[in-house]
């Protein structure tokens, strides 16, 4: 089954404790991206990757890091989480190219930073 | 730059009534437009998309949307609401090319509630 898998789905942590949210897709998509969802703000892009070893900042990259060492994986790293990073996070992937654009989303990771 | 505005963060309809969720966009080039649906505790799922072919687009679950360039709108409709349509709906826009990052710009979302 084609899917984007995120882990963990739920996490409560404390300020400053490094954490990683994993994301894996099995569709051989070149493009992967992380979004955060906050009430009334929709989804905002954090980082994206056009292919292996190619990453770039989205709209709200501060406080986050990513890596793309393999095509299927795109982990999101919070080196020193703060309460304003409490949010619902989504990983998404798609093919690249002019005539695409449909993103396939994971089920989300709800993060609470105390 | 592109942006999306969804009028009404919450919309309530009765079961069987017309569903109308509004989306207006701004884009410097003719855009691609999308509607996604998010059911509770799930990720976003594509409902339908406009990519410069027919202006009236039909999607899953009986939804459709019409691209109106003169009004810069892409409103989502369904003739008869069902209880299972209760969810949050997101409109998104993307420039068809020259947009690094394949990035979709999302609206703030509209939560649809369906009353029995």
Question: How is this fold's topology laid out?
Answer:
The complex is a heterodimer of chains A (114) and B (116).
Chain A: E1 4-7, E2 10-13, E3 19-25, E4 31-38, E5 42-51, E6 54-57, E7 65-66, E8 76-78, E9 87-94, E10 104-105, E11 109-113
Parallel strand pairs in A: 2-11
Antiparallel strand pairs in A: 1-3, 3-8, 4-5, 4-9, 5-6, 7-8, 9-10, 9-11
Chain B: E1 3-7, E2 10-14, E3 19-26, E4 32-38, E5 44-50, E6 56-58, E7 64-68, E8 73-78, E9 87-94, E10 105-106, E11 110-115
Parallel strand pairs in B: 2-11
Antiparallel strand pairs in B: 1-3, 3-8, 4-5, 4-9, 6-7, 7-8, 9-10, 9-11
Quick structural overview:
The complex is a heterodimer of chains A (114) and B (116). With 114 residues, chain A is mostly beta strands.
Commentary on this structure:
The complex is a heterodimer of chains A (114) and B (116). Helices cover 0% and strands 50% of the residues of chain A. With 114 residues, chain A is an all-beta fold. In chain A, strands 2, 4, 5, 6, 9, 10 and 11 form a seven-stranded mixed β-sheet that branches. Chain A has a four-stranded antiparallel β-sheet with strand order 1-3-8-7, with no helix packed on it. In chain A, strand 4 (31-38) and strand 5 (42-51) form a beta hairpin. Chain A is globular. The N and C termini of chain A lie far apart (36 Å). The mean pLDDT of chain A is 92. With 116 residues, chain B is an all-beta fold. In chain B, the strands form two sheets. In chain B, strands 2, 4, 5, 9, 10 and 11 form a six-stranded mixed β-sheet that branches. In chain B, strands 1-3-8-7-6 form a five-stranded antiparallel β-sheet, with no helix packed on it. Chain B is globular. The model of chain B has no long low-confidence stretch (mean pLDDT 89). Classes of the chains: A mainly beta (114), B mainly beta (116). Chain A binds chain B through residues 4, 31, 33, 35, 40-45, 48, 50, 56, 58, 90, 92, 94, 96, 98-103, 105-108, and chain B through 4, 6, 9, 32, 34, 36, 41-46, 49, 51, 90, 94, 96-97, 100-104, 106-109.
């Amino acid at each position: 089954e084609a899917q984007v898998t995120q882990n963990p789905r739920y996490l409560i942590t404390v300020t400053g404790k490094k954490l990683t949210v994993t994301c894996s897709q099995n569709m051989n998509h070149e493009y992967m991206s992380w979004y955060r969802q906050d009430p009334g703000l929709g989804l905002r892009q954090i980082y994206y990757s056009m292919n292996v070893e190619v990453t770039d900042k989205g709209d709200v990259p501060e406080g986050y890091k990513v890596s793309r060492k393999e095509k299927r994986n795109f982990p999101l790293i919070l080196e020193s989480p703060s309460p304003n990073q409490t949010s619902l996070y989504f990983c998404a992937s798609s093919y690249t190219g002019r005539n695409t654009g449909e993103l396939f989303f994971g089920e989300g990771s709800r993060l609470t930073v105390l | 730059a592109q942006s999306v505005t969804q009028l009404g963060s919450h919309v309530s309809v009765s079961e069987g009534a017309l569903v109308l969720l509004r989306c207006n966009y701004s884009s410097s080039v003719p855009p691609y437009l999308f509607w996604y649906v998010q059911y509770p505790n799930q990720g976003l799922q594509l409902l339908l998309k406009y990519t410069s072919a027919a202006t009236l687009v039909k999607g899953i679950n009986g939804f459709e949307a019409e691209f109106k360039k003169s009004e810069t709108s892409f409103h989502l409709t369904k003739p008869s609401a069902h209880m299972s349509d209760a969810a949050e709906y997101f409109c998104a826009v993307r420039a068809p090319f020259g947009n690094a990052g394949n990035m979709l710009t999302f609206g703030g979302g509209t939560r649809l509630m369906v009353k029995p």
